[in-house]
Amino acid sequence: MDAAISQLEQERLLSRLISATIAARRVLSIFEPEASQQVRIGFEELGAAFEEITCARVTLAKVPSDPPEPLGKAVEEYRTALEELRPHLPRFEGWLSVERARLADRRTHAAAVSEWADATQKLR
């Protein structure tokens, strides 16, 4: 990509990177020792944060190799946040696996209740 990008494009890229960095920092906040009991994050918020981070990957591809200073700083901060997040990814995978199993159990239970209700209805 040409090193010269429009001001509007710079602002758009900067906005996306700042948003993704904020999302990554929000996720990281649950691992801060002083916040471990006070900070909670739901699966919806976690999903939204990772979606924001994923979208920023496309944004990084559009950043010139020698970006203007505000954009370069935003890229650096974003990459730093990702590096800080990296060691926690296995924990997220574990949480998601547990949640997937819990939801599967609930689906199985709901199906059994539905079958029971149908059978009960037919007996009346």
What is the element layout, followed by pairings?
Elements: H1 7-29, H2 43-62, H3 69-85, H4 89-123
What does this entry look like structurally?
The protein has a domain at 7-87. Helices cover 77% and strands 0% of the residues. The chain has four helices and no strands. The longest helix is centred in the C-terminal third of the chain and has 35 residues, at 89-123. The radius of gyration is 22 Å and the shape is elongated. The termini are far apart.
**Major sheet details:** none
Q: Radius of gyration in whole Å, from Cα?
A: 22 Å
Overall pLDDT, averaged? 86
| Basic shape | elongated
Count of helical stretches: 4
Oligomerization: single chain
The percent range for strand residues is under 5%
- What's the helix-strand series? HHHH
Query: Using DSSP, what is the number of strands?
Result: 0
Residue windows where pLDDT falls under 50 for at least 5 positions: none
Through-space gap between termini: 72 Å
- How would you classify the helix and strand content by structural class? mainly alpha
Question: Could you name the key traits of this structure?
Answer:
mainly alpha, 77% helix, 124 residues
Q: Summary?
A:
Helix content is 77%, strand content 0%. It has helices at residues 7-29, 43-62, 69-85, 89-123.
